[in-house]
Amino acid sequence: MKKILIFLFLGACGFSPMFSGHSTDVYVPPISGINGIELRNALNAKFGGARDPNAMYKLTINLAEPVTTYKALQNTGDASWREVQVAASYTLSTGDETLATGYETASESYAFVRYLVAANASYNNAVANTINVLADKISARVIAEINAYDHGGKDAR
Question: Fewest Cβ atoms closer than 10 Å to its Cβ: which of 3, 28, 63, 134?
């Protein structure tokens, strides 16, 4: 019964989910590097598919290289735990108007082992997960900015 009342209340207040399954007309220009390709693909998936350069909105991304830091050291001085961090700055625009600029970071820790193949796999998985988190953060902000712009322009932001 409580669940039904909550849904009725939310429906009456004008609430609508931000990710409601509709596509957003955002063009993401190519981003350099392998990680840039992965980030662009993840963002395009969040926006409902790739768009052409004539889309209503343009999201330009500047992706930094991953930075790795040591988190745990053994008695021998070897690192056994590391953290990878990826940062990106972005600009959302429509025509000549800039709607939003921002800077996001994401990080993930991973186990570092002596075996090269396992260590590389662990690092690559951490970077891939970090790129996906970065795509989640950026897409949420972009969709919020687009919704605010579409439902009232500059005054709604």
Answer: 3
> What is the number of domains present in the chain?
1
* Domain extent at residue 28: 23-156
CA distance linking residue 147 with residue 100, whole number of Å? 12
pTM for this prediction: 0.79
Q: Is residue 48 part of a domain?
A: yes
**Considering only CA atoms, which of 18, 26, 33, 9 is closest in space to residue 99?**
26
Distance of CA 54 to the CA centre of its chain: 22
DSSP string, 15-84: ---SS-S----EE----SSHHHHHHHHHHHHHTTS---TTSSEEEEEEEPPPEEEEEEE-TTS-EEEEEE
Tokens of 116: 């090269």
Vertex 19: Cα angle to 52 and 132 (nearest 5) = 70
CATH of the domain at 36: 3.30.160.150
